[in-house]
Amino acid sequence: MSKDAKAAEKRIDQFISGPGGRADDWRDLVEAAKVWARGGDRAKYDAALADLSVIEEFHGYPGLQLMAALREAATAGDAAESLGLATRITQALMTRSFRQHAGDWDPKDDGSGNAPELVSSTFGSHAARRPYFETLVVTGVSSDKWPALAAEWRKLRRPVDSFVYEPVIVGTLEDAFCATMLNPNIAAVVINEGFGLRSRHDAPVLRTMTATAGVNDESDGSALRLAHIIKRVRPELDLYLMSNRDVEEMAGNPEANVFRRIFYSIEELLELHLSILEGIQDRFDTPFFDNLKKYAERPIGTFHALPIARGKSVFRSDWIRDMGEFYGLNLFLAESSATTGGLDSLLEPTGTIKKAQDKAARALGADRVFFVTNGTSTSNKMAVQALLGPGDIAIVDRNCHKSHHYGMVLAGAQPIYVEAFPMTEYSMYGAVPLQTIKQALLNARADGRLDRVKMLDLTNCTFDGHIYNTRRVMEECLAIKPDLIFLWDEAWFGFARFSPFLRRRTAMGAANEIETWMHDPKSVAAYEKQQADLGKTPSDEVLLKTRLIPDPRQIRLRVYQTNSTHKSMSAIRQGSMLSVKDVEFHTVEQQFKEALFTHASTSPNQQLIASLDVSRRQMELEGYGLVANAIEIAFAIRKAVNSNPLISKYFRILGADAMVPAQYRQSGFTDYLAAGTNWANIVKSLDDDEFCLDPTRMTLVCGTAGYDGTQFKGILANEYNIQINKTSRNSVLFQSNINNTRSDVAHLVRVLAEIAGEVDRGLVQGGANAKKTFDARVKSLMTDVPDLPNFSHFHDSFRGDAGTKTNEGDIRSGFYSAYDAAGCEYIRLGDPEIDRRLKAGPDLVSASFVIPYPPGFPIMVPGQVITQETIDFMRKLDVKEIHGYDAKEGLKLVRAEALAKIGRPKPGAAPKLKAAS
């Protein structure tokens, strides 16, 4: 293979080495040009330019003319011209000035900013800044005619256009796929018939990925096939078909719904141009935010209970005027408690909020979306309350967020707690194995209570980054119970919708794939074949070992997904969305309204609702590139920490092989940065493995440097102005997001290097005693770790009519038992009475949730029998924050006499409690 081919192979396969990797390549080109201009070897420059030439085929800027000018300068041996032009292009890319300034597109620009005919004078003439995007044009026209074709597209630009775009022209299906994956600026795709199949670049990984889409030879490379491939990887893009065949027949084909519009190819381009702009405008429109801005511009007299509206009480005050100066006038002009004038009601939306929610549903792949303004804690409680009633059973991850547990209390539902795999060394849990979930369903079936199991409630991804194989979980559970409801808490995972790699692991992404599979005739055949193989009465053991296929004719697909929009998108704190894909939603719609009325404020914050609207706009128009950058940032941090000799001496970021046990990585995948890893085997891992690791979540072990998680978090915040959220006994969690930059990476790496240097110097200068003390500290943090306690069981008084194989309990009765002050007692954690009762009884029964931070999961829930392992864990904890536990008073327990009075209520019955004295 030639040197150029190897370079092409290396670059074209890097589907997520996005903006940062491309910027590095341009900086490398400039540095190579400097060496050449100083009389050095030009070979590195030629090699760097050859690498770039492949990637830049898929971008609008620098474009065909500027890249041709670069190659001409190199061919002419003009080092100075090469350096000057490469520098100009690199600066335009870094500052993104090319989006507004026509001069950046001219190889001979004299600095005057005059636009050449090539790009049209309308490019930079607008007084207001016009958003820029790029349109991919797939054509069968020979490449020598592409410059003329691009010029025709540019002539369509008009001063009245709200947006400006540049065409990116390719001639094959594979190049169209590469452009879609590599170029985050692409916002629309025009597909002409007659294009080729294979890229002229040698890219084995690309071949592997396109083969999975069923593209193997020229006959597979139809316009409709390409459209479906693009729509699967980037569903937010508008697709347009230019056909010279029977367009009426194509338009009537249901599979052609992927196209926004179909054109007859000989018609003029202006209608297509206007359609492209209209499609972008549709995504750009933010119904609620747009009306809120208009509202703020109107002269309005407010005679309602909101003195802060219009800001008069603030700006006319000598005492709180500083708040107005800090936040600005618009914040107060946009405040209102009215639901008219385009502002709409969050509780009963019929106008702009309804339209905004519909757009969010489109963006997230859902049937409907609810905006929630008091966090995903409320979204979770709303879903649980709406979908479960007293006596219903739900299978729940014991380590899920406390809002789910409180939701069970509110609903009167009975949780069957299932345990995640433990990561004892790091004092954290992973996720719940599928076999554990299936066993719970099979146990309920054996006990004759499967009809009462209504919901599976799981966290995806977990705080520490464990991602479920959502499709497999739902399919295998539906094979046992076809109408099971799924609630996926994806508080931390909202961004994943906009990554073609991670989308398949989201609730809505998997639900859409299952829905498509259900309508494929092959699905019934696959189900019936498995049934024949299993026989009429397969044992539970066989069912647990088999990857079950559900009956597509029996499935009632009911999937709910909650996202903390503020955690991964540009929404104000507490902004949340609840996504629904439920064929039975009409049966629970009124219950959902009641749950909304129960939990949502009648005075929601207008700015918060607007931020949800705007965050949807941003993610639909640039989310793909932003998420790619967040992943790239995480990779940069992982590589910098684990490869730095000093930092890695005391710190390391755990890879997938450390975070996910081997038995759950069936593909053999080890880590994103492992030698030989490429996107083909990453995709295989995402398709096949039971659990994957979110690349943006980085667990950094700090116990090996002698710091516990809480201590290290404090050092980062107080001494270096670095904020993090989650800690464990010996680790901290770093999370990259769409807000991070390469500068953030540099700052973090410098800080870690400084801290590692201080530890190193302390050990060298402190002598043997310092080393002995350090080793003891590390041993305490890394080796002498407490075992993680599992959920034990509910006390018989809270078991109702529970079966023999299931461990559900009436958590509501347990919760309200704490309201009977006389029926409760307190025992301090260190009191010998606890040890005596653990051995001789009576049972220690918790009257409350007890949730230590970290690790952040409830080690006790109301009505649970407390075991020795739970007490041992609590006694070893060295954290200051334990919700539900007061060290001065001790554990709050239900007295034995009170337990006897509670008895065994029927499912759904209110607990019979003694009145509080």
From TrEMBL:
Gene3D superfamilies: Molybdopterin biosynthesis moea protein, domain 2 (3.90.105.10), Type I PLP-dependent aspartate aminotransferase-like (Major domain) (3.40.640.10)
One Pfam family linked to the record: OKR_DC_1
Cofactor: pyridoxal 5'-phosphate
Annotated Orn/Lys/Arg decarboxylases family 1 pyridoxal-P attachment site domain residues: 286-524, 558-739
Record key words, sorted: Aminotransferase, Transferase
Name of the protein described by the UniProt record: Decarboxylase
Source organism of the structure: Bradyrhizobium canariense
Organism taxonomic ancestry: Bacteria, Pseudomonadati, Pseudomonadota, Alphaproteobacteria, Hyphomicrobiales
